[in-house]
Structures are given as C-alpha cells and as structure tokens.
Design goal:
Length: about 250
C-alpha cells in the first residue's frame, strides 16, 4: 500500500503544477454541467484491457454534483502458485465489473472556479464483483488428476472522499481523488469440481487465497489473519482507502 500511495503522489504532483499553470486562462470559461470520464488509475493497476470503467458526472446545483461509474473490472492474471499437493495449471476464466456512485460538494469558499472545477468532498459507494475459474493439477501418490475451482469475490465499500478536479484547455477534466477512507465488506466463495478430502481441500483454499492477494493492492492486509469456513467462504469487514485518477471531457 505504501508503494501504491507513493505512485499516486508522484503522478499527482507534476500534473498539479501543469494544471495550476492553466488557471489564468480559465477565469471566464463557460459553465458546463456534464463530465464523461475514464478511470485511468484502475487501468494502470489492473491492465488497460482488463479494467475499463467509464463515468458520468452531472452538476445538479452550482456547488453539488452526482456521478456514476460502470465498467469491466477483471483480476490480473496470476503467476504460478504451488502448494504441497496442487499446482496451478491454467487460468480458465476471469470476468468482473465495477459500479460506483458518489455525491460531491464543491467547496465554494475554497474554489475560484465554478463546479466541476475545484476542491470537493462527499460520500461514495463502490461495488466490485469478480468471477474466476482455475484448473489445478492434483498430485497424489505418483498419480495426478485435474481439479477445477470456481470462485466469486464481492466487495461493497462505503466511505468519504476528498479530491480536486482540474479543467484545462477548456474541456479536459483531470480528476484526482486523493483521499477516500471507507469501510469494506468482503465476501469470497470457492467451489470445487472434484472429490478431495478436507485436509487437501484446505491446501487448495490456501492456494486460492494466494491467487486473490496477487497483484490486488491491499488484499494481503484485508485477509492477513482470515480463514475459509467449512463451506469455502471467506468473510471479513475492515477499513480501506480509495485513490483514483480520472481523465475526462466536459460539456
């Protein structure tokens, strides 16, 4: 998480200097009420072809707006995982999506320009759903067989955000959600296609947990001391953070 925060800080600072340099040309800009945007940070984190989330923001009062974001969100391809009895054969299927909404209050006393340009705060809700199927090679006394696992991962997050949206070149929107603490509800469920005993199943669940924490920032923290129950379900609730960079078009 520290490396991820540093990445966003380093990305944000030069963009801030550039955007501030444009403000003198925007003093008399026309007032626009709509923004179409693309989640750039999610695409950089998970892959441009695997994370395609598009958002729409609408100004509903001079200093308030509502936005919704919807799109494809797929967990990154895992590296090879090896347990005592299982090795990952292949990643069969990866699907998923993201839906989020927020309500923004643009701070009139802090902002020189009309919304959606300026500093904002407000509540947000985010929902992520991921489906994954994996094929494993099960080694047992010099013999081997294939076992398929299907897993579903759901994340509900409610929180509060602080950010700044720049409008440059009259129509280009650069939205930096800099601080977004929230409380997350995590539910992960795994099912098996194959007959394995309880001890071996536990090893396979451990492999699935490793897959989940690979290349997914923060999951090592979320599931650090959690274990699957007898039904192959992993549930937990904890605090988390949200950092997002959007690039968009205002009209």
């Amino acid at each position: 998480m520290k490396k991820l925060r540093l990445y966003f800080v380093l990305l944000f600072l030069p963009a801030t200097k550039f955007c501030m340099a444009q403000t003198d040309t925007l003093s008399h800009q026309r007032s626009y009420k709509n923004v179409i945007r693309y989640n750039l940070s999610g695409a950089l984190m998970f892959g441009i072809d695997k994370y395609i989330v598009i958002g729409y923001e609408r100004i509903i009062t001079p200093h308030q707006s509502f936005s919704i974001n919807v799109g494809r969100a797929v967990l990154p391809r895992p590296i090879s995982i090896v347990t005592d009895s299982f090795s990952l054969s292949k990643d069969v299927k990866r699907t998923g999506y993201n839906v989020s909404v927020d309500y923004r209050f643009y701070l009139a006393k802090e902002n020189k320009f009309a919304a959606p340009h300026g500093l904002y705060i407000g509540p947000y809700y985010s929902y992520n759903h991921f489906d994954r199927s994996n094929e494993w090679i099960h080694k047992n006394n010099n013999a081997s067989s294939n076992v398929t696992t299907d897993s579903k991962f759901n994340i509900h997050t409610i929180g509060f955000e602080l950010g700044y949206q720049f409008i440059v070149w009259k129509r280009l929107a650069l939205d930096f959600l800099m601080f977004g603490p929230g409380f997350g509800f995590y539910n992960y469920k795994a099912s098996f296609d194959g007959h394995i005993d309880a001890a071996t199943q536990e090893q396979l669940l451990d492999g699935l947990k490793q897959l989940l924490t690979q290349k997914f920032p923060g999951m090592n923290y979320v599931f650090s001391d959690k274990k699957f129950n007898a039904n192959g379900v992993l549930n937990t609730n904890t605090w988390g953070y949200r950092y997002i960079i959007h690039i968009g078009y205002i009209f």
